[in-house]
From TrEMBL:
GO terms for biological process: translation. SUPFAM superfamilies: L28p-like. The lineage of its organism: Bacteria, Candidatus Magasanikiibacteriota. The keyword Membrane does not apply. Transmembrane segments: none annotated. Residues 84-114 are annotated as: Disordered. It holds the Pfam family Ribosomal_L31. Residues 85-99 have a biased composition (Basic residues). Keywords: Ribonucleoprotein, Ribosomal protein. This is 50S ribosomal protein L31. Belongs to the bacterial ribosomal protein bL31 family. The keyword Protein transport does not apply. It comes from the Bacteria. GO terms for cellular component: ribonucleoprotein complex; ribosome.
Length: 114
């Protein structure tokens, strides 16, 4: 092997932030945070999802919503539904004008008959 071209491997503690599970491994990732466990100093690396929380491996769905995407979607849907209830659609407008023209034609025919 050539010297000084390979990254340095250090003991690393991977922490799954969605479920709190910790994994020990050697890795070349760099982290400023460290933690000592059983006299060994590990660099700590936080991950959002791992095999302990991924639905493929666990067999159950765990909702990991770090960016509030689900809540934002529900708020958007509720907002559009509320606006749709207030706003009159084309069908309502057409029905109103059709009813208005029918009443006008009835009044005209009644006047002609008198």
């Amino acid at each position: 092997m050539k010297k000084e071209i390979h990254p340095i491997s250090k003991p690393t503690l991977f922490v799954d932030t969605s479920c709190g599970i910790e994994f020990f491994a050697d890795s070349t990732v760099k982290s400023d945070e460290t933690r000592t466990v059983n006299g060994v100093e590990y660099q700590v690396f936080n991950v959002e999802i791992s095999s302990a929380s991924h639905p493929f491996y666990t067999g159950k769905q765990i909702l990991v919503d770090t960016a509030r995407r689900v809540e934002k979607f529900h708020e958007k849907v509720a907002k559009t539904e509320a606006a749709a209830k207030i706003r009159k659609g084309k069908k309502a407008k057409k029905a109103k004008t059709l009813a208005k023209t029918k009443t006008e034609t009835k009044k005209k025919t009644e006047k002609k008959e008198k």
